[in-house]
Specification:
The chain has 124 residues and is of the alpha+beta class. The chain has helices spanning 3-6, 22-31, 35-45, 84-89, 112-123, and strands at residues 14-18, 48-52, 55-60, 66-71, 75-81, 91-98, 103-110.
Length: 124
Protein backbone atom coordinates (compact mmCIF):
# COMPACT_ATOMS: atom_id res chain seq x y z
CA UNK A 1 0.00 0.00 0.00
CA UNK A 2 1.48 3.31 -1.10
CA UNK A 3 1.37 6.77 0.41
CA UNK A 4 -1.69 7.82 -1.57
CA UNK A 5 -3.77 4.88 -0.30
CA UNK A 6 -2.64 5.51 3.28
CA UNK A 7 -3.73 9.17 3.25
CA UNK A 8 -7.25 8.81 1.90
CA UNK A 9 -10.01 10.22 4.10
CA UNK A 10 -13.25 8.34 4.72
CA UNK A 11 -15.24 9.27 1.58
CA UNK A 12 -12.23 9.76 -0.71
CA UNK A 13 -11.33 7.26 -3.41
CA UNK A 14 -8.53 7.02 -5.94
CA UNK A 15 -9.54 7.88 -9.48
CA UNK A 16 -6.18 7.22 -11.13
CA UNK A 17 -2.50 6.68 -10.42
CA UNK A 18 0.13 7.64 -12.97
CA UNK A 19 3.51 6.10 -13.74
CA UNK A 20 6.83 7.48 -14.90
CA UNK A 21 7.66 6.68 -18.52
CA UNK A 22 10.32 3.97 -18.98
CA UNK A 23 12.63 6.45 -20.73
CA UNK A 24 12.91 8.40 -17.50
CA UNK A 25 14.70 5.43 -15.91
CA UNK A 26 17.09 4.76 -18.78
CA UNK A 27 18.00 8.36 -19.59
CA UNK A 28 20.09 8.60 -16.42
CA UNK A 29 22.17 5.60 -17.43
CA UNK A 30 22.97 7.22 -20.76
CA UNK A 31 24.67 10.20 -19.10
CA UNK A 32 26.42 8.71 -16.06
CA UNK A 33 27.86 5.28 -15.41
CA UNK A 34 26.99 3.37 -12.26
CA UNK A 35 26.48 4.85 -8.78
CA UNK A 36 24.64 8.05 -9.62
CA UNK A 37 22.20 6.36 -12.03
CA UNK A 38 21.58 3.61 -9.51
CA UNK A 39 20.66 6.18 -6.83
CA UNK A 40 18.46 8.11 -9.28
CA UNK A 41 16.80 4.86 -10.35
CA UNK A 42 16.04 3.97 -6.72
CA UNK A 43 14.67 7.50 -6.10
CA UNK A 44 12.39 7.20 -9.12
CA UNK A 45 11.00 3.90 -7.85
CA UNK A 46 9.66 5.79 -4.81
CA UNK A 47 7.85 8.53 -6.74
CA UNK A 48 4.05 8.34 -6.61
CA UNK A 49 1.70 10.47 -8.71
CA UNK A 50 -2.01 10.25 -8.00
CA UNK A 51 -5.43 11.70 -8.58
CA UNK A 52 -8.33 11.19 -6.22
CA UNK A 53 -11.86 12.52 -6.46
CA UNK A 54 -10.73 15.40 -4.19
CA UNK A 55 -7.06 16.19 -4.89
CA UNK A 56 -3.90 15.75 -6.98
CA UNK A 57 -0.95 14.22 -5.10
CA UNK A 58 2.81 13.78 -5.59
CA UNK A 59 4.99 11.86 -3.13
CA UNK A 60 8.78 11.65 -3.47
CA UNK A 61 11.56 10.37 -1.27
CA UNK A 62 13.31 7.14 -0.35
CA UNK A 63 14.14 7.69 3.30
CA UNK A 64 12.69 11.16 3.79
CA UNK A 65 9.35 12.06 2.29
CA UNK A 66 8.11 15.13 0.46
CA UNK A 67 4.50 15.48 -0.64
CA UNK A 68 2.58 18.06 -2.62
CA UNK A 69 -1.19 18.15 -2.89
CA UNK A 70 -3.66 20.49 -4.53
CA UNK A 71 -7.38 20.17 -3.93
CA UNK A 72 -9.36 19.89 -7.15
CA UNK A 73 -11.48 22.96 -6.35
CA UNK A 74 -8.24 25.03 -6.18
CA UNK A 75 -6.88 24.00 -9.61
CA UNK A 76 -6.78 26.76 -12.23
CA UNK A 77 -4.89 25.16 -15.17
CA UNK A 78 -3.51 21.81 -16.33
CA UNK A 79 -0.73 22.03 -18.92
CA UNK A 80 1.25 19.41 -20.86
CA UNK A 81 4.89 20.03 -21.81
CA UNK A 82 6.70 17.64 -24.14
CA UNK A 83 9.98 17.90 -25.97
CA UNK A 84 10.81 16.11 -29.18
CA UNK A 85 11.85 12.87 -27.44
CA UNK A 86 8.77 13.07 -25.24
CA UNK A 87 6.50 13.32 -28.29
CA UNK A 88 8.24 10.39 -29.99
CA UNK A 89 8.36 8.13 -26.92
CA UNK A 90 5.10 9.20 -25.24
CA UNK A 91 6.21 10.96 -22.06
CA UNK A 92 6.22 14.50 -20.76
CA UNK A 93 5.54 16.85 -17.86
CA UNK A 94 2.08 17.78 -16.64
CA UNK A 95 1.94 21.09 -14.78
CA UNK A 96 -1.05 21.56 -12.47
CA UNK A 97 -1.40 25.17 -11.33
CA UNK A 98 -3.48 26.05 -8.31
CA UNK A 99 -4.73 29.33 -6.98
CA UNK A 100 -2.04 31.74 -5.87
CA UNK A 101 1.48 30.48 -6.46
CA UNK A 102 0.94 26.77 -5.85
CA UNK A 103 1.72 24.23 -8.54
CA UNK A 104 2.55 20.55 -8.98
CA UNK A 105 4.61 19.02 -11.80
CA UNK A 106 4.26 15.38 -12.79
CA UNK A 107 7.77 14.98 -14.26
CA UNK A 108 8.43 12.42 -17.03
CA UNK A 109 4.97 10.93 -16.68
CA UNK A 110 3.88 8.33 -19.22
CA UNK A 111 1.00 9.34 -21.53
CA UNK A 112 0.79 12.97 -20.37
CA UNK A 113 -2.29 13.78 -22.47
CA UNK A 114 -4.22 10.98 -20.74
CA UNK A 115 -3.08 12.33 -17.36
CA UNK A 116 -4.36 15.78 -18.33
CA UNK A 117 -7.67 14.32 -19.51
CA UNK A 118 -8.10 12.38 -16.25
CA UNK A 119 -7.51 15.51 -14.18
CA UNK A 120 -9.79 17.61 -16.40
CA UNK A 121 -12.52 14.96 -16.09
CA UNK A 122 -12.43 15.28 -12.30
CA UNK A 123 -12.62 19.08 -12.52
CA UNK A 124 -16.00 18.97 -14.28
Amino acid sequence: MGYIEKTLISDEKIVAKFKLHWFSYTSNVLFFWLIIPLWWFIKQLYIEYGLTNKKVIIKTGVIGRATDEIKLNKIETVEVRQGIMGRILGYGNVLVTGTGTSYIVFTDVAKPLQVKKAIDAQLD
